[in-house]
Amino acid sequence: MWCRCVALRPLQQLAVTSLNTTGLLTRNLQREMSTLPRVYVTRQIPPEGLKILRESGQVQFELWDSDDIPVPRKELLQKVKGVDGLLCVLTEKIDAELLDAAGPNLKVLSTMSVGFDHLSLEELKKRSDQNIIGIRVGYTPEVLTDAVAELTVALLLTTSRRLIEATHEAKTGGWGTWRTLWLCGHELANSTVGILGLGRIGVAIAERLAPFKVKKFIYTDLEPRPELASVINAEYVSLDELAKQSDFLAVCCALTPETKEICNKDLFSKMKNTSIFINTSRGGVVNQEDLYEALSTGQIAGAGLDVTVPEPLPINHQLFTLKNCVILPHIASASYSTRNAMSALAANNLLCGLRGEAMIKELKL
Ligand SMILES: O=CC(=O)O
């Protein structure tokens, strides 16, 4: 399930004699190719990114040619040997073992994701310190902000207005007479919305929620972020206050050692029992046992999760048994235009890095 591709220059630029009548590459072209940097792409990424790589004339790349099955670890460790560049997605763990397997040629790592918790930054830094050139890392922030914010709002409303329960009732005979309190949920009007981790995505979510007549936005983070907060008129509060005051709590922070399971029994126990908890960041920021407890005992009213640990979440997981928990399969950035933009940015980051130029979006290690 892999294919070998050459980043072809436009055909007219190729010597006609480079291709023989059966389409096989002649020795000249093979020689030209063998000097191009080698890249491994761990997934069949959306077409815009692949087109950029193919037409760049700058790299030869091999591709794990499937989007349905991730490249097996053993295969990945084989394929990265000696590569100059690696384009990966968030399912690949880029750790010491993988970097050792790749070896000293690896100069550029480009991930088609805004999150980078699958990359061992410590190992990457260590190698950068040991090697004058170092490994440069590209990622894909901003291009997915709108899609993620849109999905977060959709998940929030689906959870708070109990849409999944409602459609289920409608099609399975539960829809009797119109009832005064049946399937009632919680509304955004006059509510306090809390954002845990205020960045571009948190701001974009708040901007979309504001027209629903939210009364107040609050947020917490490592420190106040006045510039971003001023865009949505949000007040900085402690984590405790965020839990206590929020009618809707949206988690937007990155997964780091500091945020691992930050949403736990302690946090849930301070939330109102009418509150809705939404997570579209990473599953690892939540202690799922504690969330189950909070949802099943009525400590909080509902949860909408786009991310879990593990992914996919096993279908017999206890969270799936709860009516007040809506679980999506990590689709926040899944719009055609956004996924194509992410693949194009990942490809361009990779090519810039291999040329020794500044990447469009580069992670500072
Ligand atoms: O979760 C998606 C991403 O990190 O891009």
Write the layout of secondary structure elements.
Blueprint lengths: L1 E5 L20 H8 L3 E4 L5 H9 L4 E5 L8 H7 L5 E4 L7 H7 L5 E4 L9 H10 L5 E3 L6 H16 L2 H9 L20 E5 L3 H10 L6 E5 L5 H7 L1 E3 L2 H7 L2 E4 L13 H6 L5 E4 L8 H9 L5 E4 L19 E3 L8 H19 L7 E2 L2
The protein binds glyoxylic acid.
Protein name: Glyoxylate reductase/hydroxypyruvate reductase
Pfam families: 2-Hacid_dh, 2-Hacid_dh_C
Keywords: Oxidoreductase
Description:
It contains 13 helices and 14 strands. The chain is α/β, with parallel strands linked by helices and 365 residues long. A seven-stranded mixed sheet has the order 1-3-2-4-5-6-14, with helices on one face. A seven-stranded parallel sheet has the order 9-8-7-10-11-12-13, sandwiched between helices. Strand 11, helix 12 and strand 12 form a beta-alpha-beta unit. Helix 6 packs across helix 8. Bound molecules: glyoxylic acid (GLV).
Short description:
This protein is α/β, with parallel strands linked by helices. It has helices spanning 27-34, 47-55, 73-79, 96-102, 121-130, 145-160, 163-171, 200-209, 226-232, 239-245, 265-270, 288-296, 336-354, and strands at 2-6, 38-41, 60-64, 85-88, 108-111, 136-138, 192-196, 216-220, 234-236, 248-251, 276-279, 302-305, 325-327, 362-363. It contains 13 helices and 14 strands.
